[in-house]
């Protein structure tokens, strides 16, 4: 059998976290010289507490030991692995995983190990992870799942905004000049991801214009593929996420939406407040807009 590894730059909900075929690999957040495993030893609220005091947390890539523990445990259980990793253009995580995978391939040639660059993260990685977990539930092969994930990565759009650009600039994700322009005169950034990097798409005056542009960009990207699962991720701003869902639902009545919260490690770089929409321009051959494991979670929540 095959399992899926995601790191903590992939937004998850309870159903995804509890999926039996998911392996979670945290990046690390460093506060006052102490390292915490994202999503295990620290969460977004704790990171925001530190940031509101004016302190600047640091982040670091995955631990080799943590990845090796996952590989060893699954090797002993005769499980193969697909790792959907954070963008290689934004982190050294992919490069570290590549080296470890090469070492294991030499030692254990019968173990299937596939490393996929998400070319992003956040809700974009979630789109791929959701379909991969659904395909695992249905018994698709390692190769079929790999192909589907790679196709999703190639056809995912990122359209998002954040409260201000200070934290992206401090984390080295954008340059200082871009940050200064965006933080003046009530100008809000519309961001996207190209070639695995966060780039400025447009500067707009006021939040409302940004939200309308995010909605328009999403509609333009998906074209005729309106019957799909769309991810909306937020950085401590569920109200705006719900607002965007309402806007998009009116234009896309056939679509299904899932709202996720960004992880703590991405919250360090994105800052306090922000929202994004992630959608597909093309579907892989095996695509399901209503995966059963997500529907089961919704049903259980309604019963409760």
Automatic annotation (TrEMBL):
InterPro entries: DegV, DegV_C, DegV_domain_contain. The keyword Transmembrane applies. The chain crosses the membrane at residues 258-280. One of its GO terms (molecular function) is lipid binding. It holds the Pfam family DegV. Keywords: Lipid-binding, Membrane, Transmembrane, Transmembrane helix. PROSITE patterns: DEGV. It comes from the Bacteria. The keyword Membrane applies. SUPFAM superfamilies: DAK1/DegV-like (SSF82549). Signal peptide: none annotated. NCBIfam families: DegV. May bind long-chain fatty acids, such as palmitate, and may play a role in lipid transport or fatty acid metabolism. This is Degv. It comes from Trichococcus palustris.
């Amino acid at each position: 059998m095959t399992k899926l590894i995601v790191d903590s730059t992939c937004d998850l909900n309870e159903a995804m976290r509890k999926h039996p075929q998911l392996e979670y690999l945290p990046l690390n957040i460093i506060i006052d010289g102490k390292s915490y495993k994202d999503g295990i030893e620290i969460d977004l609220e704790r990171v925001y507490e530190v940031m509101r005091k004016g302190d600047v947390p640091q982040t670091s890539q995955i631990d080799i030991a943590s990845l090796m523990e996952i590989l060893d445990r699954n090797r002993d259980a005769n499980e193969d692995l697909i790792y959907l990793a954070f963008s290689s253009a934004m982190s050294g995580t992919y490069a570290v995983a590549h080296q470890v995978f090469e070492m294991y391939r030499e030692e254990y040639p019968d173990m299937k190990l596939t490393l996929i660059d998400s070319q992003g993260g956040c809700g974009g990685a979630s789109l791929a992870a959701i379909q991969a977990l659904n395909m695992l539930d249905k018994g698709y092969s390692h190769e079929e799942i790999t192909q589907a994930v790679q196709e999703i990565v190639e056809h995912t759009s990122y359209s998002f905004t954040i409260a201000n650009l200070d934290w992206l600039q401090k984390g080295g994700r954008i340059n200082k000049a871009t940050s200064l322009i965006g933080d003046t005169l009530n100008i809000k950034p519309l961001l996207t991801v190209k070639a695995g990097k966060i780039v400025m798409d447009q500067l707009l005056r006021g939040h409302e214009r940004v939200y309308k542009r995010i909605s328009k960009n999403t509609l333009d990207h998906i074209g005729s593929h309106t019957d799909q699962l769309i991810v909306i991720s937020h950085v401590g701003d569920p109200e705006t996420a719900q607002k965007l869902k309402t806007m998009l639902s009116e234009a896309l009545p056939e679509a299904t939406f899932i709202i996720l919260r960004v992880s703590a490690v991405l919250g360090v770089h994105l800052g306090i407040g922000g929202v994004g929409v992630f959608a597909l321009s093309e579907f892989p051959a095996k695509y399901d807009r209503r995966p059963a494991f997500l529907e089961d979670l919704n049903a259980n929540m309604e019963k409760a």
